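Pair request: fold both.
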Amino acid sequence: MTTASLLNYPEFDWYGDLDYLGESWWFQPVATSDSDTVQSVYDQTIKLLNSWYLPAVNRFHKPLIFVQVEYYSAHTSALQTYSFGPQISQGNAADPSVPSDYDEQGRMYQAVLLAFAATPWVQGSYSFGYEYYNLDSKGYSIRGKTAEQITSQIYQQINNPGCSYSLNYSGLAFAAQGGTGTITITTGTGCTWSVGALPAGVMLTSAGSGVGTGSITFQVSPNAGGSVSSSFTIADQTFTIEQSATSIAGLTAAGSLGQVASEGTWVFSLIGINLGASSATARFSFADNNGNPLMLPLTFPQLPPAAGPELASTLDRTLSPNAQVVMESTGPDSVPPLVGSGQLQSNGNVSGFGIFSNPKQSWNAVVPLETRNASRYVLAFDNSAPLTTGVAVASLAAQAQNVTAIVKDDKGVQIGSNATISLSAMGHTSFMLNNPPPGFPATAGKRGTIEFDTTPGGQLSVLGLRANGPALTTLPVLANVGTSGGSITHVAYNGGWTSVFYIVNTGNASAQFTLSFFDENGVALPVPLLLPENGTNTTTAALTQTLAAGAMLVVNTQAEDAQSLVIGSAQLTTTGNISGFEIFRWTSFGQEASVPVETRTPGSFVLVFDDTNGLTTGVALANLIATAANVTVRIYDDAGTLLQTTAINLGSRGHTSFMLPANYAATANKRGMVEFVLPPGAKISVIGLRAKNDGTLTTIPVLTK
């Protein structure tokens, strides 16, 4: 039973005895001009439904049926009110000054009926006019007009509340030159759907409506201006179109990511952050192994959840100072992985890093942003059981290049002949080092180094990985190694932790190094060490050795889980081109993280943190000199808003480490960055650590200002 007076007489309590509430949609003011888009009218209809009708639905707890919906088929029908001016109906003479407009009537029906279909408590609708006669009149009848086809498509959505709709993606991002897109609509048999009004520059190349599961295709025109973001509706779901700017003033290369992996059990995260003092635009782009655009399904955890991922191979983002953007990519486990590399361009000081993980394996490894343009990169490998080493190599050159690979054992003796890795323009390859093809089987069971040499005009990005049971760890790749040595910010052994140091001579002559250890208070720390290559045991606060050209030395701490945890830092000094890194292992969970030798001396270090969704960020700082340092600490959220300013006092060669939320409550359940500002003359090093509540562990690259 229905009533047409729902809003006029809401005091009638007997409305609650009805099966349905009924009301007319008669001259409702939901358009502001006769050229309003379907999306605009739809939005206004939703607002009117919620403000005007929902209170009655909530009062009587009954669904609503609109017993009359009417818009005449003439120009200005979008603006009709109860007392409209032109005499337009079958019963009156048509005003000759008002032209017919079936499209305007159709847009109104489409917008209003789609809004009804999207409102679960609206469960029915009837058209006011469906006369057999006067098919060309300006009246309310929809017979033979655009509105009839639209109504027939949408009615089933309104009158069948069991229909639900989903899109395979919530959006697509295009480069400035445009392109084509395909969207799949999934729904039940017999459920109708249609496409709303399209934004400028987007054109359908398929039918704009259908019944049941189907798809549409569309074309995006080239963009001659700045970045564009627009949207339209498909089956009442919002679909977003992004398109990059034709050009961005001052845009230059900011760095590259040597490995990107998504879907097929892999999850990839990318964090970009503006380290500059003014807003900057960043362009993120992805390429597959052949150098072609790599379309990744992206979600943006800083934004409200979308119905699905946005598919993109390139996209632009403008960031305020100290603000960051986070994007994540994953997909079905049952499909082959999407693999390739990433590039970052910016017209400011934008940096960042990636993290790829495999939850099924509890693997989590960071992908630092490669900013060096070196002629050679050296990766230390360890394939002694149960360890295996992986490598990814990406070309940043616009032309194909052949990369020379030279493998040496830990004594510096070359294994086999020089090998060639062929990469297409912007191409990429990745493999386990000891697996043929395309790896190097001669490295099986050995330790050593592999050197990658670029061709003239070429540019590479190289990433190393170490797999050790449940642990997957990034290996720092050495390049442009000088003679200044450096600092290893965090050393930990005993109490569930152990550390391994890899020291590499990248030079052409033998050289000496000293690895010195310091405790929290900067006092020399005797550490029990094992040199597995010759079985030597020693306890010392300063290990001095000579390395042949190209040689590598492994140094293990002899840790005991039953003993108290020992933590501190280490410093490397050398007479030649010697560098390296540390792997520290969390034996309780079988996880590992790498600590590079820090050689930078900036004015401040920046640590990006994420303490949301079961993640916790840790940090360690070490003072490299005998003078105490009072370090200023500035904490920002991911929008770049300053949350807190405090200080850390580091004594002479002192060290400290802690979990961020434990020391700074302002970081709890937030994303953001911590800036460590050095006083004049100070020299410190910083390392970040990300731990997940399942025990997964990875190092976070520390950026510099």
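--- second member of the pair ---
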Amino acid sequence: MSDNGNTDEHGGTAMAERTPVLIVGAGPVGLAMALALWRQGVPARILEAAEEPQHGSRAVQLHAPTLQIFERLGILDEAERRGLRVHHNSYHLSGGRTLRVELGSRNEPLMLPQQVTCELLEAALERAGARVERSTRVTEVSQDERLVTVKAEGPDGTVLIEADWLVVADGVRSSIRDQLGIDFVGEQVPVNFLLAEGRIDGPFEPGAVHYFLGKNGGVVFASMPGGRIRVSAGVPEGYPFTPEGVQRLLDERGPRGLSVAGLDMINSFGSQERVAERLRVGRAFLVGDAAHTHSPLGGQGLNLGLQDVHNLSWKLGGVINGTLSPAVLDSYQPERLQAAREIVRNTHRFLKVFTLGPAAARVRNTAWSALEATGLLRRWFVPLLAGWRVAYPDVLGGAAAAPGRRTLPAGRTLPPAGHRAPAWLPQAPAAGGAPFRLVTLGTADGGPEQAGQALAERHPGMLAHDHLIGRRTGFLLLRPDGYVAAGGTTPAELARVPRLLARLAPCRTARTTSWRSSGLRRRSRTGGEPCRPAPRRSRNRWRPQRRRPGRTAR
């Protein structure tokens, strides 16, 4: 469709430019989305209203699941070189007690200014063959069942763009969200924050995030690359945003002996707790701050947006490249809505704990001491802060979304669908391969390996198989984003996997044209409906097989 009836400034018909995916917003989330698609061979186009790239540190704490995304995007090594690893958190309670919590390699975040994150993502995007179109503001969005049409004003005037899919990453004040008629549900956080960065002198342990939880309020004191320190705290109305005001915070709420040596930045900012009512309208998807926003405590904001990208990019890329049915896209909204609402609830609790009055603060400190003494602070709270405990409803398998967070059943040795893959499982290669990975577990001469291999042979291009030798018997079907699509310990549970794959596979009768192979002049065409499930093949038991080499499961 090249003539959409729009007219140019001279009264003629404007010819629309075509792209499989249009991304609006070139912050870190939009850049990551574009890069993830280009690495799958999908040439996404990205527009940005601002004239220049983002400046300033902004969101600096990148948690471990986000660093896995960086590895898949090919920027982790450079991020590590320019960032600072945090090895522990210290919680300083009133009365002089300090709870020093070692995070462990699985939970250690990286402190990296957002400006650097954007630089790394954009450089990688340019290496992939794309560029950000700056000074280009979207003014109108419309869509039908076949495509999205966007009108934008750029340096060369008005441009019309037709896209198969639209990804909205234009921030918390998203104008496109409003055009799509999506409510941004929530309220303003009733706390004003001070944020300062620079040089602080005094006796403190570097390479850590320090939470000072005193009787007079709290203050966060975080190490950053280059020997700089970030200081943040909730402050009352009218508080002075000056070096003297920052020094006063350190004196009243922090330890003795800290002094401001020089500040590069002092800002006041507020925050909101809001989640979009919907994350998808037709062919348009919301990601990042356009989809959700919350209190800055815990450093979750950018991480949450990048996880949106991690969830959506493999699904959208698979649909466009013809390896997945459009039905897979139906899972994005319920999965990421649940994740966003959970994070907003958690950060709300963090804020309440952080801003307690003197009497309640004493109760909090007692409770935290008990958590530390029992080991729960390290085993439960640290993974929660890192983002490992976010779980999805099992909508990918066809189940209805249920409200609230799904908990792991007691006594279960393998995580169910919607939970993250266990830490002991070796990661899949960062690039290439089939959309799903089936990992079977058991002895070298047992039936799970044979059953898994047979499944992979019946689903070429859709399923890769790997067998781990160990005492436990069972299987895990893994998604590209590190979540479990299905799992179990019996042949009956494994027999359900072909039906799930058939639901998510493109129909063989549908015409498909990959953007990777055909170029930008042709439009990818995939069937709008998933295939019917393949006939069920009965398997009453694991069949024994000859010994084959394999890796060992813990």
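Observation on the second member. The radius of gyration is 25 Å.
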